[in-house]
Model the fold of this input.
Amino acid sequence: MREEKFIETSFLIPLHEDKEIRNGKLHPSDRWTFFQRKLYITFEGWTLAPGVYQGCYKEPDTGQEIADFSYKYILAVAKKDLDKLKELLRTECAVFRQKFIYFEAAGKVELLEVCYAKNL
Done:
C-alpha cells in the first residue's frame, strides 16, 4: 500500500457574521455543526484548536479596522486534496457570512475569498 503525503493546514473562522454582509451576530450552533459534519464527511476528520483567537484586520472595502474573535481549525490533508479543501472553504464557509477565510498550509498563508453572495 502506497503511503500518502499529508500537509498540515489551519484556518480561522470568526465567531460573528461579517457586519458588511449581515448583522454581525454570533453564529448559531447549527452552522458550526453543519460545517464540522461537512469537514468530517469530506476529509474524515478535523481538529478544533483550544481557545479563541483574537485579531484585527483592515476591511478591504471600507478601510476600517475590524477586530474579531475566531475559532482555529487544524486539518491534515493529502497534498492531492489541498485544492479540494480550499474549494470547500470558499463555498461552505458562506454559511458564516464572511468575505475571506484566513488559510495556512505548510507555513504559506492565503486569504480565501468566500462565495457568500451565491450561497445566501
About this structure: The mean pLDDT is 90. The chain has one domain: 6-16+23-56+69-119. The longest strand covers residues 65-78. Strands lie at 6-14, 47-48, 53-58, 65-78, 100-105, 108-113.
